[in-house]
Amino acid sequence: MALPKHLQNGLTPDELTFLAEEETIDIVPLFSMTRVRLLSGIYGPFTPPSAAKVPLWLALSLKRKRKCRIVPPEWLSIDRVQNSLKEERENAESFCSLPRRFIEISKVLLDVAQDDLMQPSSLRSLLKDLREVRQAKIRIGLQSEGVMRGSYLQVTNLTPLELSELKPFLVKAMGIMQSLEPRKEEDEDEEEGGGNYAQ
Amino acid sequence: MSFFDDDENDPLSPPNRPNYGVRPSSSREGSVSGSSSFLDRLRSTVSPPPAHQYSENENDRSRASASIFDEGSTSGRIGASSNLDDDDDDDHGMGSVFGNEEEEEDEEDMNDVKKLGRALMRERGIPDLGGWKGELIDGVFDKLEQQQKMVNTLRSDPQTSEEEHFKLMLVQTEMERVKYLVRSYVRTRLHKIERFAHHITLTPEMHHLLSGAELSHARRYTDLLHTHFQHSALDSLPEWLRKMDDTYGDGLSMVSKPNRNTPVLIYCRKDCGEITLEGGERAALARGTTHLVKYRLVDRWINLGWAEVL
C-alpha cells in the first residue's frame, strides 16, 4: 500500500543511482557564477578555468545544459579499470575492492558525459567485462556447497547494486532453508556471541 | 560583481541577508505566505497538528530515543528489545562497549541529505522498524522551508538577475530531490507501521521508535481494521472465533510481527567482534567487510551505527 510491491525487496537500481548522485565529483565550469547555497552544502564559486566540487546530480544537470565539463573520477580510467579486471580475473576466491557506487556512477557518466571520458567505448566494454566477471564469480560462489548454511554469507567488496540484485533471491532461499531446519534451540544460539566482543 | 562581496550579495545565503534571515522558530508558525503546501501536508501527516507543540514534542521524542541508545546502562537496551526478541541475555557483555563509545566521525561530517539517504537505506534494509529520525527530519524541514521562502521572495522580485534565476533553479531541483528522500523514508515506515500496526499498539516498548503521528496512526489504523473486520464478518461468527489476537496451537499468532530472522546486508564501519551463527560457527565482523546475516544477530550494531545497512 504505502510501499508498492516492487520496492519492498530493498532498494531498486534507480534508487541506488539516485543515492549515488549525492556523491561529489569535480567539474570544470564553462560559465561563471558566485557561490550557491544548497541544502547539502555551499558549492562554488564557479570560475571557468578552475575546478569545483559539486554533487553528481548537479554536475549532470550542468552537463546536460553544456555548462560544464566533468572531470572523471580517478578510478574511471582505462588503466585502472583494466587493472581491476586483471585482478578480478586472477583472484578467483574473493572480489577486489572497488568504489562503492562504481556501477551507478560509471553508468550515468557514460550516458551523459561521454565526451569527457577517454575512449568511452572501450571503457564501457571494460566495465561490462568487469561486471560480468564479478557476476560469474557470484554465480559460482552460490553453487558451492554449504553457502546457505547458518543463514550467513560473507559478501565483502560486493557493491550495494550487486547485492540488491542478489538479495531477494538470497533472502527467499534462506527463508526456505530455515523452515526446513529442525526447530530446536532456536532461541539460545546467540547467547555467547553477543558478549564476545573484540576491539 | 567581484568575488569578495559574494557573501553579502549571494541571495542564497540566508543568514547574511536581514530580510531573509528569518529564525527557524518563527518559520514554524506557518505564517509564511502559502509557501510550502507540500511541507504542510507532509508535516501534518508526519507530526501532531499544532505547529508549536510539534517542535517540542519532536525534540523530546528524539532526545528520548537518543538517550536510549546513548546511555551506558543496559536498561535502555532491554527496554528496546524485550518482548521483541530473545537477545536480552547476551547484553551483559555490552556495558563496556557502550561505555567507550566513540563518536562516528563519518556520520557527523555528513550533510543532512546524505544522512537522509542513509536513513532511507537503513529503513529499507531492515525488517523491523528503525528509530524515527526526528531531529534530522526536523532540521531538513526547517531548511526546506527557508529555501522555499527565499525562492518565493526572489522569484517575485523583478530585480532578480539572470544568474540568480539559474541558482534558483538549482535550489529547486535540490529541494525536489530532498523531498523525494523524505517521502521515501516516511512511506517506507508507513508501510511497516501499517503492516505491524497491531503488534505496535500491543508493545509499549516499541513506542519510542515512532513519532507521535506515526503512533497515533498505528493506533487508529488498528482500530479501523478491527472495526471493519467486526462489521463485515466477525460479528456473524461464533463468539470463540471472533478474536483478532489469537495464537494457534502451533505457535502461529494472528498478530504479525517483524521477522527478526530475516537476513540483512550490513557493511561494518567498525570492528564489530564476532557473532555465533546457528550451527555454532563463528563469523568475524571485521571493519570494512560486508555480510548477509540475520537481523537478530546484528541489530545492536546497526543501532549503534557501527554497521551500515545496505
From TrEMBL, chain A:
Gene Ontology biological-process entries: chromosome segregation; DNA replication; double-strand break repair via break-induced replication
One annotated Gene Ontology cellular component of this protein: GINS complex
Residue intervals of the GINS subunit domain: 75-179
Signal sequence bounds: none
Region (Disordered): 180-199
UniProt-annotated location(s): Nucleus
Record InterPro entries: GINS_A (IPR021151), GINS_bundle-like_dom_sf (IPR036224), GINS_Psf2 (IPR007257), PSF2_N (IPR056784)
Keywords: Chromosome partition, DNA replication, Nucleus
The DNA replication complex GINS protein PSF2 N-terminal domain, residue ranges: 12-71
A Pfam match: Sld5
UniProt-listed Gene3D superfamilies: 1.20.58.1020, 3.40.5.50
Subunit structure as annotated in this protein's UniProt entry: Component of the GINS complex.
Homology family: Belongs to the GINS2/PSF2 family.
PANTHER family: DNA REPLICATION COMPLEX GINS PROTEIN PSF2 (PTHR12772:SF0)
Protein name per Swiss-Prot or TrEMBL: DNA replication complex GINS protein PSF2
Automatic annotation (TrEMBL), chain B:
Annotated Low complexity bias: 21-37
GO biological process terms held by the UniProt record: DNA-templated DNA replication; double-strand break repair via break-induced replication
Compositional bias segments (type: Acidic residues): 1-10, 100-110
GO cellular component, one term: GINS complex
Protein keywords: DNA replication, Nucleus
Subcellular locations according to the entry: Nucleus
Domain GINS subunit: 148-229
Cross-referenced Pfam families: Sld5
Domain of life, source organism: Eukaryota
InterPro entries, A to Z: GINS_A (IPR021151), GINS_bundle-like_dom_sf (IPR036224), GINS_Sld5 (IPR008591), SLD5_C (IPR031633), Sld5_GINS_A (IPR038749)
Region feature (Disordered): 1-112
Comp. bias intervals (Polar residues): 72-83
Family label: Belongs to the GINS4/SLD5 family.
Name of the molecule in the record: DNA replication complex GINS protein SLD5
Source organism per UniProt: Kwoniella bestiolae CBS 10118
Lineage: Eukaryota, Fungi, Dikarya, Basidiomycota, Agaricomycotina
